[in-house]
Design goal:
single chain, 430 residues, alpha+beta, Helix Hairpins, Heat Shock Protein 90, five-stranded mixed β-sheet, four-stranded antiparallel β-sheet, rod-shaped, phosphorelay sensor kinase activity, transmembrane, phosphoprotein
């Protein structure tokens, strides 16, 4: 927007200059024009009043550095006059006291000599008037022309001092806009931010105030939902604990074991549901982390648990994120790959600047049906028979992973591998 404001300003200045040029135009300065015509008219009247033998001395006395006078005994070769020249000829006739139809020819030529930039510009004004005895008076003067003020004055004075001021005010005006855009980007990545200062023009202050109100309401909504779910979880745990105690009092192990397993499954479902709804990634502060180290940490932790996991990472990849949330999302993908495919291979790719960072997790399992590639990200969604219920889990791992990745402004996709197995791809904004 700053570039557009500056461009608009320069366009307005250029348009103002163009209008001024069209109004003022080119040609002889008004003062120099009248002075030159008066001098020619005075010379004409002096020659008319002078005796023929005194005329050469008179013309020599009238000459100067910018005016030359001479007599032509024969009619000179006359070329057609332009409209501007004819106007000058009419004015000269008035000054000389001659009728408009008198034999007067005037020609003006600009830029007859080279001149230095910034120096005065002169033209050549030639006038030929027929005397009463048939001779012609030829006058050649060098009046001053209109200067190109838009080059010597207007551009340096009106444009150059204005540009720094425009840049300063554009920066001050657009700074709240940039802050608003950055805050919206940070919120979209799941970060917590402080309310923005309400500054700038009226429109920007209104937009900033509305943004702060929206952010406050969203934060309050998430907090209220989390508190409600925590209360529900607490209320569920109390009867489950009592039920577990009742089950432990049963003497028949054949009856007690399946009931204990059902209660454990219900407790796990409640815990995972609360964790998913609470979205712990929002509470974690954003910080600079090394993605390569994060991938290696997740892989080594899974390896310590006896899982068949391998990883390949380039050198250090600094990235601003919430490491715990991102590690949790990656761990869920690795856990799914090991659970359903037996192995997990993690690869981190850091493409050239501007492209997305890619983390892929491959397994050697049976894959999933094509129509389930998106549905598996829904809470509690589990395809069958490709993903057997006996493998464990409640169907929240991928939903939690997508929530964490989306909070970072990224995306996650699943695709069946041609050679068998499944590939999970995390794309994070660079």
């Amino acid at each position: 927007m700053a570039g557009q404001l500056i461009g608009l300003l320069l366009l307005g200045i250029a348009a103002a200059h163009l209008i001024a040029i069209l109004i003022e135009g080119e040609g002889i300065l008004p003062q120099a024009r009248e002075y030159s015509l008066v001098r020619i008219a005075a010379a004409y009247r002096a020659v008319e009043a002078c005796a023929p033998d005194e005329t050469p001395a008179l013309l020599a006395a009238l000459e100067s550095s910018d005016a030359v006078y001479r007599l032509l005994p024969a009619p000179p070769e006359l070329r057609p006059m332009s409209a501007a020249d004819a106007e000058l000829a009419a004015e000269l006739a008035t000054f000389a006291g001659l009728p408009p139809a008198a034999a007067i020819h005037v020609y003006v030529q600009a830029d007859t000599e080279a001149y230095l930039p910034g120096s005065p510009r002169y033209g050549l004004l030639e006038a030929r008037l027929r005397l009463s005895d048939g001779r012609w008076l030829h006058a050649s003067l060098r009046p001053r022309l209109r200067s190109q003020w838009w080059l010597k004055f207007s551009v340096p004075v009106s444009v150059l001092p204005v540009l720094p001021l425009v840049l300063l005010f554009a920066w001050r005006i657009l700074r709240p806009t940039r802050a608003l855009a950055e805050a919206a980007e940070r919120i979209s990545r799941g970060e917590r931010i402080d309310p923005l200062p309400v500054t700038g023009p009226v429109e920007l202050r209104e937009a900033t105030a509305a943004f702060n109100t929206m952010h406050q309401r969203l934060t309050r909504f998430v907090a209220d939902r989390t508190a409600m779910l925590a209360a529900i979880g607490h209320d569920f745990r109390t009867p489950l604990t009592a039920l577990r105690l009742q089950v432990e009092l049963l003497e028949d192990e054949a009856v007690r074991a399946p009931m204990r397993r059902i209660i454990d499954d219900m407790r796990d479902m409640i815990d995972e549901t609360l964790r998913f709804a609470r979205d712990d990634s929002v509470r974690e502060p954003t910080q600079e982390a090394d993605l390569a180290e994060l991938v290696a940490h997740v892989g080594s932790r899974c390896l310590e648990l006896g899982q068949a996991v391998s990883w390949a990472v380039p050198g250090p990849v600094p990235y601003r994120c919430r490491p715990l949330a991102l590690g949790r999302a990656l761990a869920n993908l690795v856990d799914n790959a090991v659970r359903y495919g037996g192995t997990a291979r993690i690869r981190l790719d850091a493409p050239p600047a501007g492209d997305s960072l890619l983390i892929t997790v491959d397994d050697d399992g049976p894959g999933i049906p094509e129509d389930w590639l998106e549905r598996v990200f829904e809470p509690f969604a589990r395809p069958a028979p490709a993903r057997d219920m006996d493998t464990g889990g409640i169907g929240l791992g991928l939903a939690i992973a997508r929530s964490c990745i989306a909070a970072h402004g990224g995306e996650i996709h699943l695709a069946n591998r041609r050679e068998g197995g499944l590939t999970a791809t995390i794309a994070l904004p660079a």
